[in-house]
Amino acid sequence: MSKRDRAARAKDAAEDAASAVDELDVSDAPDGSDMGADGSDKGADGSNKGADGSGDTSTKAAADNELRPSGKRSGRARRSASAPGTSDDDTASEGGTAVAVKERKKKKTSSAESRNPFVRIWVFLQQVVAELKKVIWPTQREMITYTVAVLVFVVVVTAFVFGIDLGFAKGVLWLFG
User: Would you say 48 and 40 are in contact if contact means Cβ atoms under 8 Å apart?
Assistant: First the structure.
């Protein structure tokens, strides 16, 4: 876990704790005043009003923060969701993400499956063709570029190995020669 991830996690934890304290302070207000826990004015609907009296600023910021993707998928949520005996509520309580997990279909072993080797080879070839249709083939220009790059690399490495071999041969002849 990088320093940036740790800092973001600590910031989120601090914000969650502060919002929990704010909720407790607002609900425990003895006189029912329209002042929030932070001293900001509350509107008639109980929403925070900014200095200009416009909209709910803290709710907008929290909504923007929740909608912003983190850029990472949680492997723990995927594993815990597929583990036996866990439910979606368990995953949400562990801090998992809302990544959909597709369950794998179990392979049905039936007597209808052919044991004929020619049928199996035919099915295999059909699957090969289906996979080759999924491949993104390089364009002619990309193919030429890749071929030239490989040939240049092979020439450079061959020259390097030839130079080392020649140097060792001269060194051995000079040393034992």
Answer: yes
According to DSSP, residue 35 is labeled: B
Distance, CA of 57 to CA of 47 (rounded, Å): 9
Q: Long-range contacts made by residues 57-64, C-beta under 8 angstroms, separation at least 24?
A: 62/19
- Alpha carbon 149 to its chain's center: 32
pTM of the model: 0.32
Task: Give per-residue pLDDT as tens, 111-123.
Answer: 456 789 999 999 9
- Whole-angstrom Cα distance, residue 36 to residue 47? 9
Could you report the per-residue pLDDT of 86-120, keeping only the tens digit for each?
555 544 455 556 666 677 776 655 445 678 999 99
Extract the tokens encoding 57.
């600023």
The conformation of residue 71, written as its DSSP 8-state character, comes to S
Considering Cα of 76, then 79, then 83, then 85, what sign does the dihedral take? positive
